[in-house]
Amino acid sequence: MTSARALPQYNHSASREFFGHPRALAYLFATEMWERFSYYGMRALLVLYMLKYLFAPRAGEVFGLAGLQSALESVFGPLAPQPLASQIYGFYTGLVYLTPILGGLLADRLLGQRRTVIIGATLMAIGHFMMAFEYLFLFALGFLILGNGAFKPNISTQVGALYPPGDRRRDRAFSIFYVGINLGAFLAPLICGTLGEELGWHYGFAAAGVGMTLSLIIYLAATPNLPKDAFEKRAVLHAPLDRTAWQSIIALLLLFAPISLFWATYEQQGNTITLWADQFTDRHFLGGEIPVTWFQAFNPFMIFAFTPFIVALWRWQGQNEPSTATKLSIGCLITALAYLIMVAAAWNTGGGKASWLWLLAYFVVITIGELYVSPTSLSLVTKIAPASLLSMMMGVWLSTSFVGGFLAGYLGTFWSSMEKPYFFLMLALVSAVSGIVIAILRRPLRSVLND
After folding, report:
1. By residue range, what is the domain housing residue 105?
2. Is 10 among the domain residues?
3. Which residue from 183, 240, 313, 332 has the fewest beta carbons nearer than 10 Å?
4. Neighbours of 66 (CB within 10 A)
5. pLDDT averaged per 10 residues in sequence order, the chain, 451 residues
């Protein structure tokens, strides 16, 4: 029987190299960079836009908002503007990572990765430009959610398909790819955030739309250099799943819950951490004041600043390099430490405003935690998921961010009612629990994860 993990083969001999990697990696890097620019540019403005403009008494009508608020209040009770904005943020950031399951299935079974990515990029570009019209706010979110679902899993699986089984460059490729993600995420708050805060919200959203359009153009230009779609090899990829394949699926599902808890705390960066920066942070620096949205550029900047050192550390550790599960556990525990820093910041202020240096320390620590979790987990999926379900399983894995985003919104509703030190302590405990659970799972999953 043909192995269920056999990947669609990329023509490595015909591919020109780009810094030791297939040239297609550079195209996928740029495509993902501009897509993330659009996503994080819009995310940087979303909560502030809702609280300072969309929910204001004199704001224009938003189609469907009253019905959505009524539905949410039937479950969570009366929602003031801040909890309502937090819930909408949580549902949005969650759903953009639930729909990748459908996008992956669509690619695996019907359209292939390339066509699905193009459809997703087009939907997202439309959604960003729709944000210019308050009346269409919820429709715009819907387009962005569906577009991301088609786009996200199929870009990641194409990175994995550039390398044959056993190629040691694969993990490094995902680290390079992750730098692209965060280069876009770094530029987004500086450009979209500044335009939105200084010139008007819709200028920021329009800039995000331009970024998504550039992403689509780059991907279309890259198409001849990309791997063939997996569904083109149906005879191989539709072989029955063997025992090893099922063990791999079960292993990924067992890790699903603790990784979701990690994302629930991580996603506070665009939610309650933004509110902390706005309401409780002394942002004065060199005679000026740091814009609130610029703090969301700290994390992605540190991603591409720290990645070479983390990769070099793992290489230096050699045989002592932590296993995949250990890296995931370490990352969650480091994230818990980041929120303990915020506990100290909240205690130190005594109800006043804290120095922005506390936030800088928080972002340094949470970035290191993220580098142990996110790129490692993406590489893991492409290593062990059955090839016939590769895009769908990538979508399933990305949906950890759906659960995490939804939980992030729910946890954010406590922001207004809890003392800030206890709020951040709650987040630290949630992240610590996720790390402990992964550590417990490490031994039974060792053989499946190839640790």
Report:
1. 18-229+241-445
2. no
3. 240
4. 10
5. 42 54 82 90 86 75 86 86 85 82 82 88 93 88 93 81 71 75 83 87 91 93 77 53 78 88 88 85 81 81 84 80 86 95 87 85 93 83 75 79 83 86 94 93 74 58
